[in-house]
Amino acid sequence: MLGTGGGGTVRGPALSGAVLSPVEITSASVQLGDVIQVGGRQCRVTDLFQLPGGAKRLVFDSGELLTIHTGTRLVALRLMRMRGGDAARALTTRRHRR
């Protein structure tokens, strides 16, 4: 199960038609709800603040802060919702869908 920065698990209503997918993020593309591994712990982004020069300060559900700059590249897990609720289709490339 996916852990949070506070040592618990991510809980909430079951989302039909949604999967956690790894995505590369930058200060321009990070979103609320993204889960980033920091120091071996899974941390969920709960707030974002724009900083000068394109940097962003991320606030995690644990209350910890992380500043990322324009050159920072991280991998995060993002909840991806799919039309039709077919998780297998969400993981295939668009070119191979029918």
Plain-language structure description:
By secondary structure, the protein is mainly beta. The chain has a domain at 20-81: SH3 type barrels (Roll). The protein contains 1 helix and 6 strands, in the order ββββββα. Strand 4 and strand 5 (65-68) form a beta hairpin. The longest helix has 4 residues, at 87-90. The chain is globular and about 40 Å long.
Lay out the secondary structure.
Layout: E1 18-25, E2 35-38, E3 41-50, E4 56-60, E5 65-68, E6 74-81, H1 87-90
What's this, in brief?
This protein has 98 residues and is mainly β. It is built from 1 helix and 6 strands; from the N terminus they run ββββββα.
Feature tags:
single chain; 98 residues; mainly beta; SH3 type barrels; six-stranded antiparallel sheet; 4% helix; globular
